[in-house]
Specification:
The protein is built from three helices and no strands. The chain is an all-alpha fold.
Length: about 140
């Protein structure tokens, strides 16, 4: 008993370099996984927002084209009016109506473009940066 060697026991309970590296990689993987999941969720929302934007711009282009066609029809109708035909006012009102619809679609698209994408991700990253700044203040590194 007096001659037996005692096995080294770490009184502080440290697990060692390998365990700490595995824990660090696990924490890093969990962090990246949570951020990737948040990015995926907001990507779906952003896709819907971009599709609405494209649809509104497409609708605005089609309605503007119809407005242009009715404007041309009005010019033709003006010539017809010079020949005592009376349907010009109906064609002009139709052109004005289509231009109004195109303006409404452009305003909707403009409001969609102003809406910020990836708000939750940016907020989480801002929180992470603040946490890191506070961590540096609490534990200043000794160089």
């Amino acid at each position: 008993m007096a001659g037996d060697t005692m096995r080294f026991r770490n009184p502080a309970g440290h697990a060692g370099l390998l365990h700490n590296l595995v824990a660090l990689l696990s924490a890093l993987a969990g962090f990246l996984e949570s951020r990737a999941a948040l990015f995926a969720k907001e990507s779906k929302t952003a896709l819907v927002q971009v599709l609405v934007l494209v649809a509104c711009l497409g609708a605005a282009a089609v309605l503007a084209l119809f407005g242009y066609l009715f404007l041309l029809a009005s010019a033709v109708a003006g010539i017809a009016h010079a020949l005592h035909k009376s349907w010009i006012w109906v064609a002009l009102m139709a052109a004005g109506f289509h231009f109004l619809l195109a303006l409404i679609c452009l305003l909707i698209a403009r409001s969609r473009m102003k809406k910020s994408m990836f708000q939750s991700t940016a907020l989480e990253l801002k929180k992470d940066r603040e946490w890191l700044k506070n961590l540096e203040k609490k534990n200043p590194s000794t160089n």
